[in-house]
Protein backbone atom coordinates (compact mmCIF):
# COMPACT_ATOMS: atom_id res chain seq x y z
CA UNK A 1 0.00 0.00 0.00
CA UNK A 2 1.19 3.52 -0.74
CA UNK A 3 -0.24 6.72 0.71
CA UNK A 4 0.63 10.40 0.68
CA UNK A 5 -0.40 10.41 4.36
CA UNK A 6 -1.12 7.61 6.79
CA UNK A 7 -2.61 8.49 10.17
CA UNK A 8 -3.08 5.90 12.89
CA UNK A 9 -5.20 6.85 15.91
CA UNK A 10 -5.46 4.95 19.19
CA UNK A 11 -2.33 2.91 18.45
CA UNK A 12 -1.11 -0.02 20.52
CA UNK A 13 1.96 -2.10 19.62
CA UNK A 14 1.47 -5.75 20.58
CA UNK A 15 4.92 -7.08 19.71
CA UNK A 16 5.61 -9.41 16.82
CA UNK A 17 3.44 -12.18 15.48
CA UNK A 18 4.09 -15.00 13.04
CA UNK A 19 1.77 -15.05 10.02
CA UNK A 20 1.65 -17.36 7.03
CA UNK A 21 2.45 -15.82 3.63
CA UNK A 22 2.68 -18.06 0.55
CA UNK A 23 3.08 -21.12 2.76
CA UNK A 24 5.89 -19.62 4.87
CA UNK A 25 5.83 -18.20 8.39
CA UNK A 26 6.95 -14.55 8.45
CA UNK A 27 7.49 -12.19 11.37
CA UNK A 28 5.15 -9.22 11.46
CA UNK A 29 4.60 -6.27 13.76
CA UNK A 30 1.17 -6.51 15.40
CA UNK A 31 -0.64 -3.21 15.95
CA UNK A 32 -4.14 -2.55 17.23
CA UNK A 33 -5.58 0.82 16.15
CA UNK A 34 -8.92 2.55 16.56
CA UNK A 35 -8.93 4.46 13.24
CA UNK A 36 -6.85 4.67 10.04
CA UNK A 37 -6.87 7.62 7.64
CA UNK A 38 -5.12 7.03 4.31
CA UNK A 39 -4.47 9.88 1.86
CA UNK A 40 -4.26 8.95 -1.84
CA UNK A 41 -4.61 5.22 -1.16
CA UNK A 42 -3.18 2.76 -3.68
CA UNK A 43 -3.32 -0.90 -2.64
CA UNK A 44 -2.07 -3.88 -4.61
CA UNK A 45 -2.74 -7.49 -3.77
CA UNK A 46 -2.43 -10.96 -5.17
CA UNK A 47 -5.29 -12.99 -6.56
CA UNK A 48 -5.23 -16.63 -7.58
CA UNK A 49 -2.26 -17.70 -9.67
CA UNK A 50 -0.09 -14.85 -10.89
CA UNK A 51 -2.96 -12.36 -11.15
CA UNK A 52 -3.06 -9.21 -9.03
CA UNK A 53 -5.47 -6.38 -8.39
CA UNK A 54 -4.97 -2.64 -7.87
CA UNK A 55 -7.37 -0.62 -5.72
CA UNK A 56 -6.97 3.16 -5.80
CA UNK A 57 -8.93 5.96 -4.20
CA UNK A 58 -9.80 9.15 -6.04
CA UNK A 59 -6.64 11.34 -6.12
CA UNK A 60 -6.60 13.85 -3.26
CA UNK A 61 -9.10 11.88 -1.18
CA UNK A 62 -8.78 10.32 2.26
CA UNK A 63 -9.84 6.70 2.73
CA UNK A 64 -10.79 5.60 6.23
CA UNK A 65 -11.03 2.49 8.32
CA UNK A 66 -13.20 3.22 11.35
CA UNK A 67 -15.22 1.40 13.98
CA UNK A 68 -12.18 -0.41 15.38
CA UNK A 69 -10.47 -2.11 16.97
CA UNK A 70 -8.48 -2.84 13.82
CA UNK A 71 -5.76 -5.49 13.96
CA UNK A 72 -2.79 -4.81 11.65
CA UNK A 73 -0.04 -7.32 10.93
CA UNK A 74 2.69 -5.39 9.12
CA UNK A 75 5.99 -6.55 7.63
CA UNK A 76 7.33 -3.09 6.88
CA UNK A 77 6.31 0.56 7.21
CA UNK A 78 8.42 3.32 5.68
CA UNK A 79 7.70 7.02 5.61
CA UNK A 80 8.40 10.31 7.34
CA UNK A 81 7.02 10.53 10.87
CA UNK A 82 5.22 13.82 11.50
CA UNK A 83 4.69 15.30 14.96
CA UNK A 84 2.24 18.18 15.46
CA UNK A 85 2.08 18.58 11.68
CA UNK A 86 5.84 18.91 11.18
CA UNK A 87 7.97 16.31 9.37
CA UNK A 88 10.35 14.84 11.88
CA UNK A 89 12.40 11.97 10.53
CA UNK A 90 12.23 9.41 7.71
CA UNK A 91 12.04 5.93 9.18
CA UNK A 92 11.60 2.28 8.40
CA UNK A 93 9.82 0.01 10.85
CA UNK A 94 10.03 -3.76 10.56
CA UNK A 95 10.50 -6.65 12.99
CA UNK A 96 14.18 -6.65 11.99
CA UNK A 97 14.67 -2.89 12.53
CA UNK A 98 13.17 -2.71 16.02
CA UNK A 99 15.56 -3.12 18.94
CA UNK A 100 13.06 -5.22 20.89
CA UNK A 101 10.45 -6.37 18.34
CA UNK A 102 8.69 -8.81 20.67
CA UNK A 103 8.08 -6.25 23.43
CA UNK A 104 4.31 -6.13 23.95
CA UNK A 105 3.20 -2.56 24.66
CA UNK A 106 -0.49 -3.32 24.15
CA UNK A 107 -1.30 -1.82 27.55
CA UNK A 108 0.02 1.60 26.39
CA UNK A 109 -1.95 3.68 23.89
CA UNK A 110 0.37 5.76 21.74
CA UNK A 111 -0.63 9.22 20.50
CA UNK A 112 -1.83 9.78 16.99
CA UNK A 113 0.91 8.86 14.52
CA UNK A 114 1.07 10.39 11.05
CA UNK A 115 3.45 9.34 8.29
CA UNK A 116 3.88 11.10 4.95
CA UNK A 117 4.96 9.32 1.76
CA UNK A 118 4.11 6.02 3.43
CA UNK A 119 4.78 2.60 1.94
CA UNK A 120 3.31 -0.28 3.93
CA UNK A 121 3.53 -4.04 3.47
CA UNK A 122 0.61 -5.44 5.42
CA UNK A 123 0.14 -9.17 5.73
CA UNK A 124 -3.30 -9.00 7.33
CA UNK A 125 -5.85 -6.40 8.41
CA UNK A 126 -8.87 -7.45 10.47
CA UNK A 127 -11.80 -5.42 11.75
CA UNK A 128 -13.19 -1.99 11.10
CA UNK A 129 -15.28 -0.47 8.34
CA UNK A 130 -13.45 0.55 5.13
CA UNK A 131 -14.46 3.55 3.00
CA UNK A 132 -12.55 4.33 -0.24
CA UNK A 133 -13.79 7.49 -2.01
CA UNK A 134 -14.10 7.00 -5.78
CA UNK A 135 -12.64 3.49 -5.59
CA UNK A 136 -11.10 2.24 -8.83
CA UNK A 137 -10.57 -1.52 -8.80
CA UNK A 138 -8.73 -3.12 -11.72
CA UNK A 139 -6.68 -6.25 -12.48
CA UNK A 140 -3.00 -5.77 -13.22
Topology, please?
Layout: E1 2-9, E2 12-21, E3 24-33, E4 35-39, E5 42-46, E6 52-56, E7 62-66, E8 70-83, E9 86-93, E10 113-126, E11 129-131, E12 136-139
Antiparallel strand pairs: 1-4, 1-10, 2-3, 3-8, 4-7, 5-6, 6-12, 7-11, 8-9, 8-10
In short:
With about 140 residues, the protein is mainly beta. The chain has no helices and twelve strands. About 20% of the residues are buried.
Average pLDDT works out at 89
Beta strands, count: 12
First CA to last CA: what distance? 15 Å
Biggest sheet layout: 9 strands, antiparallel
| Order of H and E elements | EEEEEEEEEEEE
Individual helix count:
0
Large-scale geometry? globular
Number of domains: 1
Helix content: under 10%
Structural class designation: mainly beta
Strand share of the residues? over 45%
Overview of the structural elements:
This protein is an all-beta fold and 140 residues long. The chain has one domain (2-139). Helix content is 0%, strand content 65%. It has no helices and 12 strands. Strands 1, 2, 3, 4, 7, 8, 9, 10 and 11 form a 9-stranded antiparallel sheet that branches. A 3-stranded antiparallel sheet has the order 5-6-12, with no helix packed on it. β2 and β3 (24-33) form a beta hairpin. The chain is globular and about 40 Å long. The mean pLDDT is 89.
Amino acid sequence: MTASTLTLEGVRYNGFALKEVDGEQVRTMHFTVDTLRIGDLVQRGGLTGDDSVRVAARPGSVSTITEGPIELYTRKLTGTLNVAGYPLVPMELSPESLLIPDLDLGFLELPKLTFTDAVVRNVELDGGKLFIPGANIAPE
